[in-house]
Amino acid sequence: MAPGDGCGADGLNGTTTRAEGLALPKAERGRTVPPGKRLLDVLLSGSGLLVSMPFWAAVAAAIKLEDGGPVFYTQDRVGEGGRFFTVFKFRSMVPDAESGVGAIQATKDDPRVTRVGRLLRATAMDELPQLWNIFRGDMSFVGPRALRPSEIETTADGDLVPMADIPGYLERSQLRPGLTGVAQIYAPRDVPRRHKFRYDRLYASKQGFWLDVRLILASFWITFRGKWEHSGAKI
Asked: How many domains does the chain have?
């Protein structure tokens, strides 16, 4: 996006502190929906869809040439207020990658990831079709990652915990899911979800228009450097 599930809260102090450094003017704190957020989403996603169409054609051709499978991958996700929506992505894994094993997050050097998919994931270009989700209003450019309806967390003790039982779930569920966000940028890729929720709660408490702009610019920089799949610091 490598610490494993055993990474405690102390192991996150450095990155959490960096994220907390994204201070905002006092007047912008505590607002449920920052003024201009939806307008920014519509303008950026609409222009992005128009500009990137030739790239879509090139990616589609590359995916088809590699294995002949479908170009797009769709999945149900939980959106703002618990509403379900369908998320769109360029397929980066072999066809039927989840058959028999379910929706398991890809790991480093995962054999299910195709050669084209590896490049797409490193630059986050596999998520480019989500511009349509943003334009429709399912998602925002900045917000917490959209979760699968049945997603669970495995604790360090091996216990299975529903996402809704993890502290911070309620706060993040009131926000529109984002293509990028504080957790996506600052949290180490493979830390447990319960730790990433801390970053989502931080964003919920400090969200604002200019913070969104800064996070979007940081995301472009990570994409340019191909660091989204990096296990360490992305920026």
From this structure: 1
